[in-house]
User: Fold this.
Amino acid sequence: MPKLPVVTGAEVIKALKRAGLTVRRQRGSHVIMQDRQSHVSVSVPVHGGEDMPSGTLRGILHKLDLSIEEFRRLLK
Assistant:
């Protein structure tokens, strides 16, 4: 299994936008994004440039059915 990249919340949001998700709203330091096709929503924490915990990132990818390889491609 490939390793998860170390990314910030802002980098995750950029990558998910490339995957076709849109920002629906923001409440505090959490951005709610939604997939246009499946209407699945995820909450992405944006905590002042801190690295996202690996479990949080893994949960977001799992909910969106994205592999680590696909996510790495979206980061570029």
User: Anything to note?
Assistant: The helical segments are 9-18, 54-64, 68-75. The longest helix spans residues 54-64. The chain has one domain: 9-75. The chain has three helices and three strands.
